[in-house]
Amino acid sequence: MSETPRTTAVAASDADLLDQTAIAVRAAGSALRERFGEVVRYQGREELMRALAGNDETALDILRPRLTRLSPDAGWVEDELDGGALPPGEWWVVDPAEGNVNHLHALPEWAVTATLVRENQPVLTAVHLPLTGETYTALAGAGAHLDGRPLHVSPTADLGLSIVATSQARPDEDEKVVRRVGSSITAMLFDALVVRTAVPATLHLTNVAAGRIDAFWQFAGARADLLPGALLVTEAGGRVSDAQGRPWTPQSESFLAAAPGVHATAVATLSR
């Protein structure tokens, strides 16, 4: 999450690009909101996957042409569940329905996200929550905002007074990762004030950036889950690392985003 100096012209161009990206995710969010309200019933995994794909396709039909016009030379990450480093150049990392399974169950915790990555560094992101109308944005070196208002992480310096959060492992996750998630939750239950466990990751990270919760951690995870929130938290003054306190990259096996005052204590707790 290092910052790279930019010329004024490039910075202005990226700021304009962020504005248009925010418009695109709002448009996709409106289309998904029209599909929201009733619990989607399904009898098996195949039906579930078709329902998830239907939401994805609805949003992508709006996002793909708009974002491609904004940055024609940028590549497109086809699978929002992919992880690891990207090839050189610019890439759009998009989750068309972050928290898709919540949408299908008529739960409110879902969003649309789009992040532009340049040489494996996120340079701008827009996260839209259609049910609240909120749009979170961040531009590398220019701060994080909620509907134009600057965001700042929590000033909390005591993990014992902190609300912390994590998201669960995926249903097909490796058993070792699942057990590590469980042991980390147990450790945080001893050390933190409140532990929240839910999906999706991005909504927890918007709350870290807004100072509502103090830390979020996750083991494994896809780029689309973590890149938007990593940039939001960094630009809001938070610290992003892996769970051992080392610099985080999309290749890392763990992730931690926290207010600076509790980051070191959170690392110690997760390392037990």
Describe it for me?
With 272 residues, the chain is an alpha+beta fold. Helix content is 40%, strand content 22%. It has a seven-stranded mixed sheet. A five-stranded mixed sheet has the order 9-8-10-12-11, with helices on both faces. Helix 1 runs antiparallel to helix 2 (45-70) and helix 5 (201-209) packs parallel to helix 6 (223-235). Residues 1-12 have low confidence and may be disordered.
Entry summary:
This protein has 272 residues and is an alpha+beta fold. It contains 7 helices and 12 strands.
Count of runs of 4 or more consecutive helical residues: 7
Count the E strands: 12
* Share in β-strands: 15-25%
| Radius of gyration, whole Å | 18 Å
SSE layout and pairings?
Elements: H1 8-34, H2 45-70, E1 75-76, E2 90-98, H3 100-104, E3 111-118, E4 121-129, E5 134-139, E6 143-146, E7 149-150, E8 163-166, H4 175-191, E9 194-197, H5 201-209, E10 215-219, H6 223-235, E11 239-241, E12 254-258, H7 260-270
Parallel strand pairs: 1-2, 8-9, 8-10
Antiparallel strand pairs: 2-3, 3-4, 4-5, 5-6, 6-7, 10-12, 11-12
Helix pairs in contact: 1-2, 5-6
